[in-house]
Amino acid sequence: MSRIRDNDYLCVSAMLRGKEARMILADMFARMADAEDAQAAAKMAEDYGYTGLDLSTPQALDAGLSKMRADVYRDLAGILPQASLLDLFRLKYDYHNAKVLVKNASRLELPEGVLSEEGRLTVEEIKALFADETASGILKDAMTEASQTLAKTENPQLADFGLDLAYFREMRECAAELGGASDGYIRLLIDCANLNSYVRSVRMGKSADFLKFALVDGGSLDADALLSRWPDQDVSDLYAGGPLEAAAKFAGEAMGGWKITPFELACDNALTDYLRKTRYVPFGADAVVSYLASLDTEIMDLRMVLSGKICGIPGEAIKERLRDVNV
Questions:
Q1: What is the pTM of this model?
Q2: 230-256 as b/e, with b when 16 or more CB fall inside 10 Å?
Q3: Where are the domains of the chain?
Q4: Which of 95, 186, 274, 301 suits a disulfide with 175, CB 3.0-4.6 Å?
């Protein structure tokens, strides 16, 4: 990043570094998981700004947490020098909504809460885009192609893969504009997605052609290198010495029939570890990326804890699924 651009971010990054320092720590999440009930756990979260959460159902809780994140995005949109920084995190909700609309094109109404308000486009805007036969652009073209794929193959996974390709294309465009930590973060996201596709394809007994369609270019590891190992259940050497080294070992266990949760946790923790290094950069766009990613992890873990308490899941079982946070 240039010095001028870093200076543009001086005030907002200082504010977010302060917020990041006051996020929920790992030991607090453990205490919440061991709390007597969901109400007691939610009371602990109030000290970190999570007030007024509806604990009546996991769905109501999720809606409340999603609204809080959407409010953060809205507030930051008015003060960030570059909208692309927010797009890095809002894009996935646009593509979530696109997948829902493609799969439910014949339904006049969707259940409340299925579509997210956390994307770049409002729910009404993306519905209008989906219905507009004259519109174009990466997202619209991907929705059209996904609809055609679904109609032709009746395979929703293949339709999703096409939308995923468009999603990462837009992510790479954001990274090219921003530079800095965002480029490496997106490469790692793609590496995680590709390794995840490999693991799930093996577990589901899919073909090499299925995997080839699912893999995305733009990661640190060339997608062809992973495809060339199909259907080897040990690809750990491809990731040796890199951020996904631990995840690749759990990947082998998952492909061998063990639970997939440790693998998914290891991927998420690799992303957290990568962003933790950016905390040594006090100002600039990297500080914003670090905060937004940390916020995602915090909300994910809070949802895990409170939903678990609502459903009566034992504390130890909840803690096993928690991501690495601000330790």
A1: 0.87
A2: eeebebeebbeeebbebbbbbbbebbe
A3: 3-320
A4: 186
